[in-house]
Amino acid sequence: YRGVVVACEPWCTATAAWRQTMGAANLSRGETQPFHHCIVDDRDRPPGQTTFVSEENIVPTDEAFPVQSFLVDALLIPCPEIKGYLPRPRLEYALQRQRADGKFKWDISSEGL
Asked: d(Cα 17, Cα 23) in Å, to the nearest integer?
């Protein structure tokens, strides 16, 4: 599926139950590789979906630009010159909080946007 990375964790910070369900330990690079918070393109999955993806499962491309999602519209500024995005203030704030406490937290509910 197409998507856009909005944040990165240095390793899998998901709960033990999530890691077990998703088989994170069975990945070739395991749970200690970087994991990325991604907004998924609405053309590929139900609208508004986000994922937590291991680095080994990401294939960078500029062919997915622009990603279609209300979350992209709310959190990112399209930058066609680079076929990518810059963070809007709401995402920048979440990234600043991550730098302060080490974990990315965002409110993607309709009330939070």
From this structure: 10
Write down the residue that tokens 């690079």 correspond to.
Answer: 29
- Count CB atoms within 10 A of the CB of residue 81: 6
The count of other CB atoms within 10 Å of the CB of residue 110 is 9
DSSP per-residue letters across 26-65? GSTT-TTS-EEEEEEPTTTSSTT-EEEEEGGG----STTP
- The mean of the pLDDT values for the chain is 91
Query: Which residue carries 């062919």 as its tokens?
Result: 63
Phi, psi of 56 (to 5 degrees): -65, -15
Tokens standing for 5? 């990375």
| pLDDT tens by residue, 80-107 | 999 999 999 989 988 998 888 888 887 6
pLDDT digits (tens, 9 = 90+) for 13-55: 999 999 999 999 999 999 999 999 999 999 999 998 999 999 9
Cα radius of gyration rounded to whole Å, the chain: 14
